[in-house]
Protein 1
Amino acid sequence: MDPYCLKKLNAERRARRAALLLTDLGDGRDRVIKEGDPVAGLLGDAISQAFLSGKSSLAEIEGRSFFLNVHVPPPRLVVIGAVHISQALAPMAKIAGYDMEIIDPRTAFATPERFPDIKLFAEWPQDILEQRPLDPYTAVAVVTHDPKIDDQALERALKAGCFYVGALGSRKTHTKRVERLKALGSSDDEIALIHSPIGLDIGAASPAEIAVAVMAEVIKAFRARGLQTARNLEKTV
């Protein structure tokens, strides 16, 4: 590998940005492509699919062979609220391969006894998220029902472009939340990205069922990320 390509690839990985090393197997030349970089034609389609799947692959394009070595950051799930839903969600996230962490300033809830083997921060979300910034490979699930805890986290998640942002609460609760987020500076387009009520509509009632619905919706959003943007671009061509 070209040392410059290796340096560029490692920089993207440290920053939790997806990148792909494209190698032309005919002449051995390679280059680093970042997710979102424009690549035309069938090769561009193959690269987009590689980013979505997270799997490296061989592509035969117009008589030429390319190896697509894709590097996608591990998906991260940040849960705001050390509640019963979070307790049920933790083992599901681990099984699905998500790095999960919980943030809740309420020390009576955020205890290692309730959340063993989970990254747990008994601090205000805005303080932790300054130290541990959100990014497009992070999902945020807000489940405290307390605006003092929830709203700052939601505002930061929308600004960071997280691939999933969900918030617990009824439609009436969400209507009030929308007004508060607008006051914090969030736009209508940003607020429209929030999944609320949170989770896929499976009729969930118990905390465990809600956790199943949330995890399913997170996975769906992760596997579909970028598809709507691609469709919108196609309409403008």
Protein 2
Amino acid sequence: MAKLSTRITSITGGGSDGWEVFNRARQMIAAGETVTELTQGEHDILTDDSILDAMHRSARSGQTGYALVPGVPALRDAVAARVQARTGVPTSADNVLITPGGQSALFAAHMAACSPGDTALYIDPYYATYPGTIRAASAKPVAIQTRARDAFLPDPEAINAAAQTHAARSLLVNSPNNPTGSVYPRESIEQIAKSCVDNDMWLISDEVYDTQIWKGAHLSPRALPEMADRTFVVGSLSKSHAMTGSRIGWIIGPKPAIDCMIDLATSTTYGVPGYIQDAALFALAQGDALEEQIATPFRRRRTLVLDVLSEQNTVTAIPSNGAMYTMLDIRATGLSGFDFAQALLTEHKIAVMPGESFGTSAAGHIRVALTVADDKLAASVRTICQFAEQLTQGRSNAT
């Protein structure tokens, strides 16, 4: 075989991709074992039938050929109107590129913000694809560490230090946050924005969970002074409308940048199928009611998990103010999140994501996805707590 490029062979950085426990759980399921999966951010409620009907009608009417690469005008207009209504920032279709999901938008944003070899900052803990996406864009990923006792909120001094040390070109943030559930307060967003202005960086704001706010309020940094011309906002219908497999999202940014990203899309994805865009347009037209319907189970399950945790004192939760996850601190067991997750899967056939899958800041934690029925989730969290208590007692007896 001819030699592969270093760009493609270095996407994982030569280390783990963070998905070992998830992959092992899927192998067990394929072998016929019953596993409770609390790993992936995949809704247990499927895409609404009305959206699927709209997709079917569009496909049957002939929207199965090439669609316009930037997105069909009606959908770009709808996304722009949605963003403007929610942020107060003037936004037109010229500020919108429709993408095959939020992941494609993240890649496009880094391609636009960074030249080959530039440093791109991101906050640790992070969604598992972030550093690989940055490497795929030929940039250098540098993580900004956070601390559990600070609810994993970033320290502006750490951002400034990293930006200056590495002459960074971009900063990637995610609020509401996956994996921690943190919702960045206004003060944090303002500090992040100031760091970007002071250090002349692009801010890439992953806001795919903006409809899942349990406590506090979502503030898009694009709405702050001096930020509209240096911010890319990544959005998606995956989480807000349970359309993960439809692969439909967008990126918002200044028109000259969007024009360049349209050139990138023409050379890579070549757009999104028209029937999926029509389904997305229909979904957005349903307004807040459908979005609240999708979010309600996760709001309820967050409370359920906190109630279960209140029954014991071995496992504690990082404040989960948004998104469909709860981050649990299991450091009392003496195990890493990875070892705890592997043992939990072996002994109880419950699959969770180790905190280490999301960076070093979350070591000794696990992420629990709130994506199974209430009774099964409650039973699983109780088992997790009991298992942690057994490990903690065993550790105490050993010493």
Protein 3
Amino acid sequence: MKNLLFSLPASYQLRTVDIKTAEGTVLPVSVIGNGKPVMMMHAYGMDAREFLPFILPLMGKYEFYLPHFRGFGAAKNIELTQFDFVHQYADDIDTVIEHICLRRHVESLPVAAISMGALVMWSYFERFGTARFSRYLNIDQSPVIHNQPDWQGGLFGDRQKEMFAVFQEIVDRTLPYAHVEHFTHLPFSLKRRVTDVERLFSLLSVSRPRSKAVVQALTHQNDHKLAFYNHQTWQHKMRCLQAYLAIPYDFRAGIENVSIPVVSLIGGQSKLYDPNWQQEITRMLPKARDVILPRSGHAVPMDEPWQFHKMLKEFLQD
């Protein structure tokens, strides 16, 4: 009987391109598809390959470049060398985009970014401009993290003081264990607190009941399971939280550099970034428009997967 298995065409195979920074660090970028190049930037705690279900139907027209930020996904073993991780990620993306443009012989390409990845894009635009990007899909992210007298649309909005206190408490409790190699070696009560705070953040990121049920199922750790849980990214996540709390990220000054078309995809029920304040930024941009998904929270791909795919497809066709 003939073997019915066959190899997928190269364009349908997920591959990894390694891109070296000026300092010699090798950054992994997942690549899939066959067509015009597109870059997508993932969120805090996310693996870039989680975009795959949304882009697979588009692989015949586009080649997707999915960088993995240091400390996450395929780059989970690559450490930060700067405290300001957003600054370092923007530097890394500058290296990645230059490589892609050179390899594909293009001057610019579209970019879509969600949450932390979108914050990195606001940082990139402020420092490097928009010459390498033709248009931008900003997914539920303000360019301002800390609330200020003239801006109350920072992370968690009017709950910012309360939530930042929770983050500060967990950062302070984990600092004495910063050099402990394995999560399993932490005191059980601390492991429980870390995972509880992560679950809280994840639940605040979604709005739909089904999404909340999925988060609960994926993040629940009974005592036995938690005792042996190998949380490989916990130290990196704590470093990122430290920076979020300490650095007054505000990239509004770079708005004047963003002259390319921008689509701001906003979760109408977002508890992380107030939809009304996100629309204020859109009004400041010369070529921007809002798309509000009324039932979605911050994690748009999870709350509204079909709408997210549809919006991505429309964005790429503009």
